[in-house]
Amino acid sequence: MTSKILIIGACGQIGSELAQALRNKHGKDNVVASDIDSRNMEVVQSGPFEIVDAKDYNSVKNCIDKYDIDTVYLMAAMLSATGEKNPMAAWDLNMNSLFHVLNLAKDGVIKKVFWPSSIAVFGSNTPKENTPQHTIMEPSTVYGITKQVGERWCEYYFKNYGVDVRSIRYPGIISWKTLPGGGTTDYAIDIYHKALTEKSYECFLSADTSLPMMFMDDAIKATINLMEAPEEDVKIRSSYNLAAMSFTPQDLFEAIKKHIPDFTITFNPDFRQKIADSWPKSIDDTSARNDWHWQHAFDIEKMTVEMLEKLGEKYGVRIS
Ligand code: VAH
Predict the structure, then answer these.
(1) Is the model's pLDDT at 308 over the cut of 70?
(2) What is the pLDDT of residues 234-246, one digit of tens each?
(3) What average pLDDT does this structure show over 42-46?
(4) Does residue 16 lie in a domain region?
(5) Which residue of 83, 96, 211, 212 sits 20 to 30 Å from the alpha carbon of 253, by its own alpha carbon?
(6) Average pLDDT value for residue range 32-38
(7) Domain range spanning residue 302?
(8) Range list of β-strands (E), 161-263
(9) CA distance 241 to 286
(10) Active site residue 143
(11) Does position 89 have pLDDT exceeding 80, yes or no?
(12) Residue of 183, 199, 29 lying closest to 191 (CA atoms)
């Protein structure tokens, strides 16, 4: 039977691309996109769209009832940098939205849930290289705390109520379709825009800050692969480590400079440096590769060509 899918937070960075991928896969009328506002016209005009406040139980349930939804992708969240400026707002959005969806699944209103976690669940005491699936987790950001607690609740609802909730600890995600949205890893998006429009970039992290990263196409592939995996193959119900590559701002600058030779960069670390320093440098995602056959496709070179080509078209700039 075809799933009836609701994406909450469908106008955001991952949500907007998930909407397109799921509509291509399941048919546009089987994928309802929703957000707190209708700012992404491509999402709004490419299939059913509703204004849904993820913090409001009735707003979520009314949309689920209206379209007879059976699967929810809860992509609404306040990210790390923004969350540090609005701690209680971040807790409210990130946690209450999750409880609404988990309780709707527990009550049998929906059958399946995807909820994104993040490498932000790890902290300064976590082993930084090849961070294991199971290890010390002492997040120092509000965002990371919400993701760590959210993982505990996901596993609790699976174990105690049989809720089929699945989750991925996303690394920094790089994409070209939406502008950066308050993440610490978003320098890796902004740098491409500035390379094409200004040929120079002032980076808010230091040159040697290595972070786990992933191109959006790989993140969307992993999300759909996990949600389509047989239930018995999903052995981790907190959240799966997921990785593709790790790089520093210097690495990314050099990858871009191969295509834009006169591109220059300066480094002026701000409050986000402390956030980045608390996160791993690389991730061990063996469990995802073993349990549901995860394989990434994009490395820094392949991602850079895709980003510069797509953004080059947007800005009318041809790259070598
Ligand atoms: C952020 N892009 O920077 C998000 C992500 C691992 C980082 O969760 O907050």
Answers:
(1) yes
(2) 999 999 999 999 9
(3) 95
(4) yes
(5) 83
(6) 95
(7) 173-213+244-283+298-315
(8) 164-170, 172-174, 200-203, 211-215, 240-241, 245-247
(9) 8
(10) yes
(11) yes
(12) 199
